[in-house]
Automatic annotation (TrEMBL):
Record-linked InterPro entries: Fcf1/UTP23, PIN-like_dom_sf, UTP23_sensor
Location of the protein in the cell: Nucleus, Nucleolus
Domain of life: Eukaryota
Biased composition (Basic and acidic residues): 178-191
The protein's name in its UniProt record: rRNA-processing protein UTP23 homolog
Pfam families named among the record's database cross-references: Fcf1, UTP23_sensor
C-alpha cells in the first residue's frame, strides 16, 4: 500500500510541476487541525513529509493559525507546540488576527502565486481551496498522510491552457523573458510606431515659403535690347522778326 500511495503522490506532484511550475523545496502551509490529527495518530510531520514527497520541504504556518490555537485553550496545547516549530509566514492580519481558514485562503490569493501546498483537516477550508486552481491538498486518513488528487478547478485550468484559452504562469514568464532579451516592450513599441509615422510624413519645414534674405541688393533695371529703335525728338525752328530761323527747344518724348 505504501508503494502504491507513493506512486500516486509522484504522479500528482508531476502534474503540479508541469502545469503550475512547482519546484523544490516544496512549501507546505499547515494549520492547527492538521497538527492535532498528526498528534493523535502519532505522525512525525518533519520526518514523513520529505519521504512522502521524495524531496525537500519547508513547513510553515501563519500567525493567525497560532493565535487561533492559543484562544482554543489547553485541549490544543500539543498542536500549538508542534505548529510553533515551523516557519511563520507574514500575513496581512498581523494587527487584527482572523480565523486560520480565512487567513490561509488569503495567502493563496486567486491562483496560488507562491506555490503553497496546504495541510488541513478543516472541511469548509478544503472546499474553498479546491475552487482555486493549482493548490495541492494534504490530509490525514487511517494514520497516514495523503496527497489529494488534483481538483476539478485545476483540471479545468490545465485544459483551458491546452486549448489556448488561457496562458499558464510559466508561459507568461517565458514570454516576458523573451521580450526583455530582444528589447521588446510596450513602451518601446509605441515609440517605434511614433518614429515610423514621423518618417512617413513630409518635413513641415519644407512646406514653408522661403523668406527673402535681408541685405540682398535689388536686381538692376532691364536695359533696352540692342536693335530696338529709339524715339527721335524733332526740333522745330522758329522764325525771328528779322526772318532768321531760330531753333526751338527739343520736345520730350513720352
Amino acid at each position: 500500500m505504501t508503494n502504491k500511495r507513493q506512486k500516486q503522490a509522484k504522479k500528482t506532484i508531476s502534474f503540479y510541476k508541469y502545469n503550475f511550475s512547482f519546484r523544490e523545496p516544496y512549501q507546505i502551509l499547515l494549520d492547527g487541525t492538521f497538527c492535532q490529527a498528526a498528534l493523535k495518530n502519532k505522525i512525525q510531520i518533519k520526518e514523513q513529509m520529505p519521504k512522502y514527497l521524495m524531496g525537500e520541504v519547508q513547513l510553515c504556518t501563519t500567525s493567525c493559525a497560532l493565535k487561533e490555537l492559543e484562544t482554543l485553550g489547553k485541549e490544543l496545547y500539543g498542536a500549538k507546540i508542534i505548529l510553533q516549530r515551523f516557519q511563520v509566514r507574514r500575513c496581512p492580519h498581523l494587527k487584527s488576527p482572523v480565523p486560520a481558514s480565512e487567513c490561509l485562503l488569503s495567502m493563496l490569493e486567486e491562483n496560488n502565486p507562491h506555490h503553497y501546498f496546504v495541510a488541513t483537516q478543516d472541511h469548509p477550508l478544503t472546499t474553498g481551496l479546491k475552487a482555486i486552481p493549482g493548490v495541492p491538498l494534504f490530509y490525514i486518513i487511517l494514520n497516514t498522510i495523503v496527497l489529494d488528487k488534483p481538483s476539478q478547478a485545476s483540471l479545468d485550468h490545465v485544459q483551458a491552457v491546452q486549448l489556448g484559452e488561457l496562458v499558464s504562469p510559466a508561459q507568461q514568464r517565458s514570454i516576458c523573458s523573451l521580450k526583455e532579451e530582444q528589447g521588446i516592450g510596450q513602451k518601446d513599441g509605441e515609440q517605434r510606431k511614433k518614429r515610423k509615422r514621423k518618417q512617413s510624413n513630409p518635413n513641415p519645414l519644407s512646406c514653408l515659403k522661403k523668406k527673402k534674405k535681408k541685405g540682398v541688393p535689388t536686381p538692376p533695371l532691364k536695359k533696352p535690347e540692342e536693335g530696338a529703335k529709339r524715339k527721335r525728338s524733332r526740333h522745330k525752328k522758329r522764325r525771328t522778326e528779322g526772318g532768321d530761323m531760330e531753333a526751338a527747344p527739343a520736345a520730350t518724348s513720352t
